[in-house]
Amino acid sequence: EKSPVNLLAIKKILSCVKVDIQVGGGIRNEETAKMFFDIGVKRIVIGTEAHRNPKFVKDICKLYPSRIVVGIDAKNGLVAIEGWTETTKMKAIDLAKTYEDCGVAAINFTDIYRDGMQTGPNLEQTRQLAESVSIPVVASGGVSTIEDIKNLLSIEKYGVVGVITGKAIYSKTLDFREAVKISRQNI
Description:
Strands 1, 2, 3, 4, 5, 6, 7 and 8 form an 8-stranded mixed sheet that branches. The protein is α/β, with parallel strands linked by helices. It has 9 helices and 8 strands. The chain has helices spanning 7-16, 30-38, 48-52, 54-63, 92-98, 123-132, 146-153, 167-170, 176-185, and strands at residues 22-24, 43-46, 68-75, 78-81, 86-91, 106-111, 137-140, 160-164. α7 (146-153) runs parallel beside α9 (176-185).
């Protein structure tokens, strides 16, 4: 099995930091998953393959309990795959329900139209997805301010357990330390 192109970079990051790392992108077989776990990755995110091959996800959940995250990216509530280049006819909620009771650690839910736009998260779709399953949901897409963090905390009771943000940290519209502080106050 050929190594993922980013394996060495991730290994170097792991050697420099003392935080749990989660990796996603292109994980389509057990061998690739094992390579990431062997270098110290805490969790892997499976996206496209979660739509195409639910059996693979369920099988790998048995091998690596609590270490598999399903990444669900959506356009207007429909699952998008292959790096968002293809939109399926499957509803994000229906895909999430596929993974009830199989040991998935979490669902990373991204509203594609909001991702990187810094327009705030899609609270309604995130809440609906979280309410529809017992799997913890991590919100992604559009999170860019402390107000967005507070808004997400208001739907925590439905099963939203975390948030992914990137551009907002680099562009300094979100104070990371303040976001963590506010989130911890709510625990």
